[in-house]
Design a protein that fits this description.
132 residues; 6 helices; alpha+beta; 4 strands; elongated
Length: 132
C-alpha cells in the first residue's frame, strides 16, 4: 500500500489521471463526496457534545483529533502520549485510530479514517467516556 501512495509507478499515475479526467467518473466522484460528507456530518454531531479539538472535513476521508483538553483525565489513566491513547481507545472502546506519532506529531493526537457509516457510534462512546 505505501508504494501506491508514496511513490506510484507510471502505470498508477496514468490510471489515476484517467480516473480524474474521464467525465464518465463524475457520477462516481459525486456519490463518494456525498458518502464521506454524510459520515463526517454524523461524526461532527457527536463531537459537538465535547471539548475535542478536531479538523474540519475538506474532502479527505479522515479527521485529525487532539484531546489535550482532557489531559487531566488521561493523565489519571496513565495515558501520556498518542500511542497510549490509541491503545486505550482500541482496547477499551473498540475505536481503531492511527496515533499522532505515526505522523510525527507528539501529544494526545490521532487520525480517524471516516470510511465506516457507523463510525459516529465509536465517537459517541469516546465522547461519553471523556465527559464522564
Amino acid at each position: 500500500g505505501s508504494t501506491m501512495y508514496s511513490c506510484p509507478s507510471d502505470f498508477f499515475n496514468n490510471v489515476g489521471a484517467d480516473a480524474l479526467l474521464n467525465i464518465k467518473n463524475e457520477y462516481y466522484f459525486a456519490k463518494q463526496r456525498k458518502h464521506f460528507k454524510k459520515i463526517s456530518n454524523s461524526v461532527d454531531l457527536e463531537l459537538k457534545k465535547s471539548k475535542i479539538i478536531h479538523s474540519t472535513f475538506e474532502g479527505g476521508w479522515y479527521k485529525w483529533f487532539d484531546l489535550r483538553n482532557y489531559q487531566n483525565k488521561l493523565d489519571g489513566l496513565n495515558i501520556k502520549n498518542s500511542k497510549d491513547l490509541t491503545d486505550y481507545l482500541g482496547n477499551n472502546l473498540g475505536l481503531i485510530v492511527v496515533s499522532g506519532d505515526c505522523f510525527g506529531v507528539d501529544g494526545l493526537t490521532f487520525r480517524l479514517s471516516m470510511i465506516d457509516n457507523e463510525i459516529h457510534i465509536g465517537i459517541r462512546k469516546m465522547v461519553e467516556w471523556l465527559e464522564s
